[in-house]
Every structure is written in structure tokens, then in C-alpha cells.
Design goal:
3-stranded mixed β-sheet, single chain, Nucleotidyltransferase, domain 5, two-stranded antiparallel sheet, about 180 residues
Length: about 180
């Protein structure tokens, strides 16, 4: 993977609620310019990131926010690779700490109507009734992912209560 972290957004979930007041957003000056694909997706060019800080200077903020917590992400394998690059360890180690909201959403839809459609965050959020304000903005994606996760977890728990550990395992299943 050539790309680096260019921004990150964190929105904690506590007791089944999104804690927007504790959100964190940082732009990161990458060691290499963002790829054209990254610029197309995120809209952040190297010149836009000049006001950011190098990842080495903001990694402690990210580390403190993640320390001792499960991570909820959309497309967990991508996030695991970025976290491994910043903090070390293998992506596989990070993957064990990440609940993939995309996999949970797929499980909900497969158990329901059966015909899964597009699995972009925006498409799933729309189907789940979750607002999307700025797609591919790190903070908005974190907020949308948190809300999609809560809807999916609620749906999956409607027949019987599910633990965080169960959701973690379920969020790692392939093809679920």
C-alpha cells in the first residue's frame, strides 16, 4: 500500500450512544503526496494538508483514543493496514481489535431482504436511515460508521442480546 494516513476521525461509542462531544479530527502531512486515487476519493491534496502535522506528532492522540478499546471501522482490512503502518505489529493483529461495520451491515441485510446491494458506506447508511453529510471526510465517515454500527448491532441483537465480543467476532467473518 502506497498511501499514508492523511486524516483521521474518531467518534467514541459509549453505552450504545455516539459521543459526538468527544470527537477527534486531525489532518496529517504525509511523508509522500497522496495518490491521485486518494485525492479523488478524499478531496485532500498535498497542498491542503500543509497545515496538518506529521503522523509522528499526532500518533499519540490516535493511540490514546484507541487504547484499550475496540475499533469500529468500515472496511476493517484497510484500517488495520494503516494502523499497522503507524504503530507496528501486523495488520492481522490490528484486525482482531476491529469490528467491521460493513460485515455487520451485510449480515443484517442478508438476514432480511436477501439481495445485498452496494456496500459503500453511503449506500448502506441511506438504506439504514443514517444521514451522510460529507462522504469520505474522515470525521463524517467515523460518525456515519458509528451510527451504521449501532443500527446493525441493534438489528442483530433484536432476537437475543449480543456481547461486544460476539459483535467483534461477527464483524470479522468473511462472506457474512
Amino acid at each position: 500500500m502506497r498511501d499514508r494516513i492523511i486524516s483521521f476521525g474518531i467518534v467514541p461509542i459509549r453505552n450504545g450512544r455516539v459521543v459526538v462531544g468527544e470527537r477527534i479530527y486531525r489532518e496529517v502531512t504525509p511523508s509522500v503526496d497522496p495518490s491521485p486515487e486518494s485525492v479523488k476519493v478524499h478531496g485532500l491534496r498535498a497542498t491542503d494538508l500543509r497545515g496538518g502535522r506529521p503522523i509522528e506528532e499526532v500518533a499519540d492522540v490516535l493511540h490514546r483514543a484507541l487504547d484499550g478499546r475496540f475499533v469500529v471501522a468500515w472496511a476493517a482490512e484497510v484500517e488495520a493496514a494503516f494502523l499497522a503502518r503507524v504503530f507496528g505489529r501486523r495488520a492481522r493483529w490490528w484486525r482482531r481489535r476491529i469490528v467491521d461495520a460493513r460485515v455487520l451491515a451485510h449480515s443484517v441485510e442478508r438476514a432480511g431482504a436477501g439481495d445485498p446491494r452496494s456496500y459503500t458506506l453511503s449506500a448502506v447508511a441511506e438504506r439504514f436511515g443514517v444521514p451522510v453529510h460529507s462522504p469520505h471526510d474522515a470525521l463524517d465517515d467515523a460518525l456515519t460508521t458509528a451510527q451504521v454500527f449501532l443500527v446493525a448491532a441493534s438489528e442483530l441483537s433484536s432476537t437475543r442480546p449480543r456481547s461486544a465480543r460476539w459483535l467483534l467476532r461477527a464483524g470479522r467473518r468473511r462472506g457474512a
